[in-house]
Fold:
Amino acid sequence: MPVDIRPQQVESISGSSLTELVQNYFMDVYGMCFRVLGRPQDAEDATQETFLALFRTREKLAAAQSLRAWVLTIARNTSISMLRARRPAASLPDSVADAPPIRSPGDPERLDRAMAALSEEDRSLVQMRFMEGRSPAEMALACGRSAGSVATALCRALKRLRDVYHGEAR
Amino acid sequence: MTHPDLDRLTAWVHGFLEAAEAREADAHVAGCAACRDTVEGLRDEARLLSRAIAAPERLSALKEGLLQAASGKRSHRGLLWQIPLAAAVLIGLVTALLSPGSRHSLVDGRVALEDGRVVSAPLDFAASQSWQLHVVDRASVRLSDRSTVDLGPGARISLAPGGARGVLPDLAAGEASFSVAPDPKRLSIVSPAGRVEAADGRFSVRIVFEEEGGVPVKNALAGAIVTVFAGSVALSNANGSVEAQPGQSAALARAEAPLLMTSPQGQQEELLRRLEQLAARVAKLEDEVTQLEQKNKQLKQQLGSNVGPGGAVWTDGAGQSGVRIQTGPGGAVAPGSVIIIEEGDEKKPERKNPAPQEKK
Structure:
């Protein structure tokens, strides 16, 4: 027997699903925003904007075929429009030979700028490893490449990050 | 001795080297102070990057603000304004929000850590960091989400922050039995050939290598066998996914979709069931035989003692028996003739005295 759902019930259902939306996708959205924008604080802004946009268009959420894909599309679009409005990222300076690892305490702003200077692909690897804590096998699975080639790419991304970070200090 | 370059040490620290290369690096780093220093720098860098990319305090405050906005408790505007205040208030909740449990515990056994140190239970590990454990003989670890992992000798497992439950076990070698603490969120376990996920239940994961002379050749050739004892377990990789139920086993291989195997455990149970049925039938038959034997004996005794006017049952003590019939005068059988019926192969009455035909 079909269940009759009144508009009021729909409202209350989406109320609880909005909380779930934040619970389930917060880190995914932040990760996407970070990948596009590079600066953690910009990514936080974009995360907030994304969820507020999702709250505003809640009726579209129910219609979305894949909720996650929809949420990430909004996150990506929000981030890209913020990226366009933002000043351009620093261009990569000349490579520093054998730049050492970045040690703590580090300079947070310089690190932010260095991360913003990476390509989205590089950042995605850095994010998978350092934010999501994914293992080599998982990263290989996510990237559809062998663990060896992911390792090479991650090393290259880290090298570029160190280059920019240390290069800026000169 | 040549030092591994920075890339190689980076790959080693992050667990990307294959077994043989990793052992080589282990050995070198153990004996080289300069490389140890670089490795320490790389670990420091990893921690720094983790915090810089996703600052737990800031993110948990932002998330809390969004949750309140979602439930209508707070205006949508100016969430970020409140971050510093919220951060101060929520600082105690940080670990709860971003990493559900704060510690893993080695409750039994001994394990070697990434740097070669061997540690014994009881010992706690901070769940905010990644750990590579190499089991010395056997070990049991309680994860931050209260699930338990029993690890077989030689098992290699890494515990990294991540996944829905805040901990992402990655089994690289050996065998592990998981007892998953019930929770709506699934515990994800990573293996070289795919992912194993369960919300509760018990199952074992065994990493198998395509072997050459008993030595694991390459991680790329590894697969995993998962056997489920309780609960329902999802196996997935890039090629597909499958759900395994208690009593079932499934295989994860890199280039294939996960495959349910005809369960050896199920087969054993079926075999046992059939053996029991067979045993019951044999027992029943034995009973019947015993009963028949007793009945036979009783009958023999009855007949043996029952010597009537017409005849008698005889036995010779050597297993031969028969019925002796003596007919009276005027019968079809001539008086005085004897018919002996013997138990024989042919079950045909043997006539010892063919007198009846001869009418007098």
Summary: The longest strand of chain B covers residues 131-142. Chain B has a mean pLDDT of 75. Chain B touches chain A through 55 residues (CB under 8 Å).
